[in-house]
């Protein structure tokens, strides 16, 4: 009887831990769309405000706003964005989702990498990387 209860408890923990893994990509993708909408509308302060605590600990608001402004100034308005890769990983009950997009702007192209931590079905942006030769040479 005790073994049965233990197995049932372990199964319950596994299911709870897997729910963010299973739904992680699906809950993070709309956050990328919101990020892009804020970028298009030049709501750079809103972009920063929507990031998670780890992002804010790694990047000051001043530097983040300077990055978002540079993207807008050098690449222009986002025209289209297509997801080209993704990864979901759960370790020690922490789910991390990485989404990679090939994005076309008015004045160039870029690869954007978004990293989210998902907890209880809620995504939190903890990392953003933009790689663009067009942005670097302008």
List keywords for this structure.
alpha+beta; four-stranded antiparallel sheet; 138 residues; single chain; 5 helices; Nuclear Transport Factor 2, Chain: A
Characterize this entry briefly:
The protein has 138 residues and is an alpha+beta fold. It has a single domain (2-137), classed as NTF2-like, domain 1 (Nuclear Transport Factor 2, Chain: A, Roll). The protein is built from five helices and four strands; from the N terminus they run ααααββββα.
Question: How would the blueprint of this fold be written?
Answer:
Layout: H1 2-40, H2 44-49, H3 53-58, H4 61-75, E1 78-91, E2 94-105, E3 108-119, E4 122-131, H5 133-137
Antiparallel strand pairs: 1-2, 2-3, 3-4
Q: What is the total number of structural domains? A: 1
Largest sheet: 4 strands, antiparallel
**Number of E strands:** 4
Q: Calculate Rg over CA atoms.
A: 18 Å
Low-confidence runs: 5-16
Q: Give the CA-CA distance, first to last residue.
A: 69 Å
Number of helices: 5
Q: Hey, roughly how much beta strand do the residues contain? A: 25-35%
Compressed to H and E, one letter per element, the order equals HHHHEEEEH
Q: Largest beta sheet: what is the strand line-up?
A: 1-2-3-4
- State the share of residues found in helices, binned by percent: 40-55%
Shape: globular
């Amino acid at each position: 009887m005790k073994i049965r209860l233990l197995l049932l408890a372990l199964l319950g923990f596994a299911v709870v831990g897997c729910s963010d893994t299973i739904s992680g990509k699906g809950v993070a993708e709309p956050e990328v769309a919101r990020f892009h909408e804020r970028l298009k509308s030049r709501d750079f302060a809103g972009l920063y405000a929507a990031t998670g605590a780890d992002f804010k600990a790694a990047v000051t608001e001043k530097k983040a706003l300077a990055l978002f402004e540079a993207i807008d100034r050098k690449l222009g308005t986002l025209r289209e964005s297509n997801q080209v890769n993704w990864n979901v990983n759960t370790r020690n009950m922490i789910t991390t989702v990485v989404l990679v997009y090939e994005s076309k702007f008015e004045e160039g192209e870029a690869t954007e990498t978004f990293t989210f931590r998902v907890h209880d079905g809620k995504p939190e942006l903890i990392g953003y990387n933009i790689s663009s030769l067009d942005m670097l040479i302008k």
